[in-house]
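From the pipeline queue, job 12 of 40. The input is one protein chain; the requested action is below.

Action: predict structure.
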Amino acid sequence: MKLSILDYVPIFEGRDATQALNHSIELAQLAERLNYYRYWVAEHHQVFSVASSAPEMVMMSLLENTNNIQIGSGGVMLPHYSAYKVAEMFKIMEARHPHRVNLGTGHSPSFKNVNQALNEYKTEKVDYPTQINDLIHYFNDTGHMHHRHKDLHATPRIDTKPNMFILGTSKSSASLAAEQGLPFVIANMGQSKSHLQSVISHYRNAFSQQHPELQSYVIMSTFVITADNDEQLKGLSRAFHLWLLRIGYLNQPKYYPSIDYSAHRDYSTRELEKIKQQHNRVIIGAPNAVLKDLKSMVTMYEVDEIMIQPHVYGEYNRKQLLTLVAQANS
């Protein structure tokens, strides 16, 4: 089974952003040694417990400190930015590290105040499909006479280009990926089985109709928690669910809670109910059980690649998670 990583770059209790970023470099190096195929970085704003507000910057650090693994964004929230500027940043990374750069794009608006700040002074928003067209134009350096920026070139001009991916959970995102002949990345975040199957089937069918000469490609991401003993597994699970619960609060937590803190915190009845509702957003279990669930996911949804999110507390625990899953998959 083809396995990859999606990293939120968590800032653990008692740590700071510098330590979080340094740890992600170490984790990417380990992922490369364990033969994971890609290592992507998410984009999150005003989430104080992660250090992934600028995935492009993290990506360059990862590229500079690894040799072969594909490094990407999961993903750049394109409507906040100029497609031209995004193209130039990714072309610089591609120039420095040819054939290793992945650009995954999404269109989440983020929090209201974040959206306002990122779109400050814009009088007109460019729609997402147009921005995807722009990126393809800039990466291919087509100079197409009908493109709205036909005389504009993204620099540096290079012989290779980043690989593009469309992220989403809806048929509209699936349709866009199919129309452009691009891989589709969908997050398994507790949606119904029928919804996920419907979106993926829609993508596959639309892709084959519009690009019969190409092969469609689907990546599914999911949170994963595993450990080599039940006590550690329960502790990691408690800390994860507390983090997931608290990022929905207006008063954002300043760090990812420790296993000890989460074990001694009191929970309201409402909080316990919310945590219970979130259980289907994560795969939890012993390594072989987790691998079995991931393989079932591949079969059930007919996906080509699984991207695990090792969003657990502690540097050692994250490294162990990657190692245990890789060993189970070997």
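Job complete. The two ends are 9 Å apart (CA to CA).
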